[in-house]
Design brief:
By secondary structure, the protein is α+β, with helices and mostly antiparallel strands. The chain has a single domain, classed as Aminopeptidase (3-Layer(aba) Sandwich).
């Protein structure tokens, strides 16, 4: 397995991982559109230089870490170009997309960068997540980014434990999610 910078050729594989990292995708087309618009496409289309993949022996992306290095720059483009990709009549997904950035906004001054990480189930528990985190943190430090954060569902016990193991500090616990940060 190789950890390398994201390349344009990885787009469809990264989108596939995004939708299938918890097992085979059985979401509706609207739900898939929401997930990709909210948690994937901005990062690989607007900030590919801040994205890294775990590639298998055939150089196919089977995991990734994708990052926005500055919340203010991210949200400006996200609201204009990605939030609007979710149809107005899809009020539920538009609501969740609008809520998806609240924790990042709250902590943006101390932790301007935020990321998403996903790995296909058959490649989890192989140390790839820690390697992806390590390469992103090194990359952000080299760019003099002062801090990075993420939010995770409180129901994602594996994720919560993983972020703690990687050295992230709990910033806030809400009814459905937790925010973690790390000063760089």
């Amino acid at each position: 397995m190789a950890i390398r910078p994201y390349e344009n050729k990885d787009k469809e594989a990264v989108r596939y991982v995004c939708l299938n990292c918890d097992g085979p995708c059985d979401m509706s087309e609207n739900a898939q559109h929401f997930i990709l618009s909210t948690y994937c496409d901005y990062f690989i289309e607007q900030e590919p230089q801040n994205c890294f993949v775990a590639a298998d022996e055939n150089d196919k992306a089977v995991g990734y870490i994708i990052c926005a290095e500055n919340y203010d720059s991210f949200i400006e483009v996200f609201r204009k170009e990605y939030f609007t990709r979710i149809p107005e009549e899809d009020t539920v997904h538009r609501f969740y997309a609008s809520q998806s950035t609240l924790l990042q906004e709250k902590y943006k001054d101390e932790y301007p960068a935020h990321f998403h990480i996903d790995i296909m189930p058959e490649y989890q528990r192989m140390g790839l997540g820690q390697k992806l985190i390590h390469i992103l943190l090194k990359h952000l430090k080299e760019k003099n980014v002062r801090g990075v954060m993420l939010s995770v569902s409180t129901e994602n016990e594996k994720g919560v434990n993983f972020y703690k193991k990687c050295g992230f500090t709990l910033l806030e616990h809400t009814s459905g999610s937790e925010a973690y940060g790390m000063t760089l």
